Known about the structure:
There is one protein chain. By secondary structure, this protein is an all-alpha fold. It has a single domain (13-315), classed as Na+/H+ antiporter like fold (Up-down Bundle). It contains 17 helices and no strands. The longest helix has 35 residues, at 281-315.
Amino acid sequence: MKIKSTIEKIPGGMMLIPLLIGACIKTFQPGAGAYFGSFTGGLISGTVPILGVWFFCMGASVSFSSTPTILKKSGTLVLTKTLVAWLVTLIFSKLVPGGSIETGIFAGLSVLAIVSCMDMTNGGLYAALMQQYGSKEEAGAFILMSLESGPLVSMLILGSVGAAAFPLNNFLGAVLPFLVGIILGNLDPELKAFFNKATGVMIPFFGFALGNTIDLSNIFKTGLLGILLGLAVIIITGIPLILADKFIGGGNGLAGLAASSSAGAAVANPVIIAGMAPQFAPVAAQATALVATSVVVTSILVPIFTSMWNNHVKKV
C-alpha cells in the first residue's frame, strides 16, 4: 500500500491528516486519552513535550555557514514577513478591544489567530517551489525561515504591541530547546545530521497531538472565516514580500510570493501561547482551527499563484 505517497499528495498532508484523525477523536471520543492512559494517553495529550523535541531538532538543522547570497535572500523574506505580521497585529489590537471579535461574520477572529497565521512561512513548501521555479540560492533561503518556527516570533510580536506580557522564565523556556539545538548543530556536523533526520518524523506525531486539542465543530463554525484569513495572509504578506524580493533581495518576486504561506507548525502556537498567557485560553481552540484552515488554503493556493507569477515573469 502506498500510504505515505498518498498522504504526501495532500498539501501539508503529513501534519494535516494526523491532525484530522486527532480532531475526530477529540470531537467524538473526548475522553479517549484518559480512558487508555499510559503511552496512548501520552500521545493524545503530549503536544508540549513532542513539540519541545521537534523545536530542538529544528534548531539543530539551522546552519550559520550559509553563503551571503542565501543569507541576504532569506533575511529579506523573514524580516519582511515579520514586520508585516507585526504591523497587522498592532492595527488589529488597537481596533479590537480585548483582542478578539465576539459577534458578526468575523466572530472568532483574534489577535492570537492573526499573528500565528501571518508570521510563519511554510519553509518546506517555499523550498519546493523555489527548486521548481527559482534558483538553488533562492531554495536555500528557507534556512533562516527555520528561525520563525515555534512561538518565539509570535510572542515577541504580541509582547511588542502590548497584547500580552510573557515572564522571562516562560519566554526562555519556549525558545531554549531551539537555541540549544542551534548551538549543538553548529558545533558538531554529525549531531546536525543526526537530529535533522527527526524533524520530518516528528511532524505526524505533533499533528496528531494538536488534533486532539481541536473540536471539529469549531472548524466548521470558522471554516469560511479560516478561508478568508488564508486569502488575507497571501494578499497582505504576499505583496510586500514580492516588492521586497524584487527591490531588496534582487529577485523577480517569485521567492516573495512563494513565502506568503502559513506554516504548518503555526497550528501549535495558539495552544502553546495560551499556556503561558492565560488571557488567550478562551480563544485558543478557535484560533487553532482558523490557523489550520489557513494552512490548508495557503498550501493549495500559493503554489498555484507562484506558477502563474512564473508564467508572467517569463513573458515580460
